[in-house]
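User: I'm designing a mutation panel for DUF4806 domain-containing protein and want to avoid disrupting the core. Could you give me a predicted structure to guide residue selection? Please restate the sequence first so the numbering is unambiguous.

Assistant: Good idea. Sequence first, for numbering, then the predicted structure tokens:
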Amino acid sequence: MFHIVEFRESSEVEVVPDSWVKNNSCLWPSYKSVGRIRQAICRQEIPGDSWKSFEIRVLCTEVTYQDARAKLPRAAVTSDLQSDENDDRPAYFKRKNRGSKMFISSGSEDELESPIFRKRRNVEVGASESSAPIPAAPSVPQPPPKIFRSTDSRENIGQQTRPASNFGMVDSDTSAILREILVSLETLKEQQKFLLAHVLKLGSGGPTNIPDVTDLGLPLASIQELKDLDEQIRVRPEQKNKLTTYLGFTGGVNTKETVWRAMSTLLTNSLAKEINWSGANRKLAFKSLSIKGVVLNAVRKCPHARDATDKEVEQYIARWLQLAPDRDGGRKERAKSAASNTSFERE
């Protein structure tokens, strides 16, 4: 036989063998392992000398442990209905948990690693307490996905939560919707950029079609190619206008980015290493080329650099040429070379 009992000191309910109960007292094992306590209950183990005695109230009696466990949730609610109104103990004392007075699961042994206490709902008692029917136990709320799931009917009667399956569906649906929204926003941003550029071009009266510059051989890769193109734009105004329009379409969010995008479209980085602004160290001077004027005019075609001064644009051109050795992995190569030389000198 098994009793469903209420421990008076902590107001917790549990299933215990009838052999543990005597004169409104229940002996409780001193085992620390939840699994060991469960075995003791199921096997109706004979109480030992180290077991402690607690005052209890018998709520229900069943023949088998399984039958008693099945009625445990309803017994917990019934216990509240019968005792809460007349209990003058402070609320914090009722909620106090005693060390090993645990709710023992009927699930697998894997579930026994963490102590789980039976918490009972505080039910507001109406005037017609004795005639009110016992409410049915609520549906079992499942934990969210990726959290350990119990196989028994442990319901936290004091909480009203939705099943985990709903949480999973909501999370999945929400993630899919958010992804679609983000993709749509990115698409709208790109479309907005295109339309804005198109409107600005129309407003400035400039051409809206990107010219074909395949005959110019961009980006230029050698000093000779640069000199040849510089000669073309000096003697052929149509080539100069075509190159200016083409470089103006590179765009940018500010003057610096506009200049650097135009320069990287015009020259390869290997060629930029052989050029500087002033012609120092026997390098080709970019400031003396006719292409310099093309870059100045092309940069001002961008709405964000329309008011840029010649000096500002020239400073960004000089800086872009100066940083050519650092681009395309040049800085890392120099660092490796310096480290190798240092280690060689130490040896």
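For picking mutation sites, this is relevant: Strands lie at 2-7, 12-17, 21-22, 25-28, 52-62, 275-276, 284-285. The first helix runs from residue 34 to 42.
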